[in-house]
Design brief:
The protein is an all-alpha fold. The protein has one domain (about 30-200). About 35% of the residues lie in helices and about 5% in strands. It has helices at about 1-25, 35-45, 50-55, 110-120, 155, 160-175, 200, and strands at about 75-80, 90. It has a two-stranded antiparallel sheet with strand order 1-2. Helix 2 crosses helix 6 (about 160-175) and helix 4 (about 110-120) packs across helix 6 (about 160-175). The longest helix is centred in the first third of the chain and has 23 residues, at about 1-25. It is globular.
Amino acid sequence: MTRWLRLTSAGAVSAAAILSIAAFGGARAPRTETEDSVARGRFLVLTHACGDCHGGGNDPAAKGFLAGMTLPQQEFRIGPCAAAPQDACFKTRPRNVTPDNQTGLGRFSERQIFNALRYGLRPGETPDVEITSMTPGQGNFPAHPKYLAVPMPWPSWRHMPDQDLWAIAAYLKRGLKPVSNKVEDSEGPPDFWASEYTPEKIGTYPAPAFPTVNEKR
């Protein structure tokens, strides 16, 4: 009987100690949906090499992370000069995608950022509306769309699930500190790349149903 009491007392002390650690050792509150979305967006940004063009590489602690072009060597040259340096090229420049109101994405909504990732539309020239078609002039798709400059890989990103694109938008708007860095506008053709972003050149969205002629079950 005495031995049983000793064991019981020891167990009670251990239980009390565990409860104390849980109470005062910083038991974390459940993550909110917003925190989960921002964390998911951060993961996607880091694993999709956004910083390789927009600054900072894959290091979110690096100076100028996602703050856009700061050095001449970050500029892209698109066009004939890629094969013949003496020929002309368009110069395109990675933009500041931190939430700075004046020089970054701060003045745009998460919907406008989502539309940029899904449809390739420049947020500054695209209203804050839900788009339901990729046909110009239908379903809120602009009649004269102005697309993001090459080489922004939105034709690949558009096939990502909605929740992933919303997560990236959440991270860019709510998970980053704003950085003031004005990047000169990119050059481009008068049609804002529309002739380069036809279904014949980049495929369709949504993608053809699986399996296509090149696939198998």
